[in-house]
Amino acid sequence: MSLELFIILILRFYKQISMKKISLIILIMTSFLSSKSEEYLPTAEKVDLHKYAGQWYEIARLPNFFEKGLECITATYTLREDGKISVLNKGHRSKDKTRIKEAKGKAWRPDSSIEGQLKVQFFWPFSGDYYIIHLDEDYQYVLLGSPNRNYLWILARENKLDQTIYNNLLKIAASHGFEIENVIMVEHDCE
């Protein structure tokens, strides 16, 4: 199915939603259909989702449109009874830190034999790849990305990360083809 036909079908299906939401759907869809190749991206071999669950602070990321203008970003993962993971991302708006933007979604392993590969979905029917590239053995920090190299995050259990660890994570990201010169640090001064 061509991209144009897919967009037309989406527009017909979502007649009742606003143009703003339709534009957002199109933006997200085209970001997942990037021209960058999806070369192999190794992931962590062992990921205990019970240990992975909980709150993480976003330390740094590649720029993306859905987090633009946000600070003090956290991601909270909660295991569900159906084996999936509830995802709650929160960030304070840079211009007015009293305003919080939230995104609720779910994640799951598309292949149970590959523990470091997840899919994440914030609205149906679209989902994206969420690869755990490097995970601290004590689950204190993690490097995440997408196989098309458009998305990259460094998360930690605390809102600061040791500079040596941070630099090592950037080296790992660079060795896998991520453009680390574009990585931005996330401010955590909202409290």
Brief write-up:
This protein has 191 residues and is an alpha+beta fold.
Report on the architecture of this protein.
By secondary structure, the protein is α+β, with helices and mostly antiparallel strands. It folds into 2 domains: 3-32; 49-185, Calycin beta-barrel core domain (Lipocalin, Beta Barrel). It is 22% helix and 34% strand. The protein has helices spanning 3-13, 19-32, 49-52, 163-175; strands spanning 54-61, 70-79, 85-93, 100-108, 117-123, 126-135, 141-145, 152-156, 184-185. It has an 8-stranded antiparallel beta barrel with strand order 1-2-3-4-5-6-7-8. Strand 6 (126-135) and strand 7 form a beta hairpin. The chain starts with a helix and ends in a 6-residue tail after the last strand.
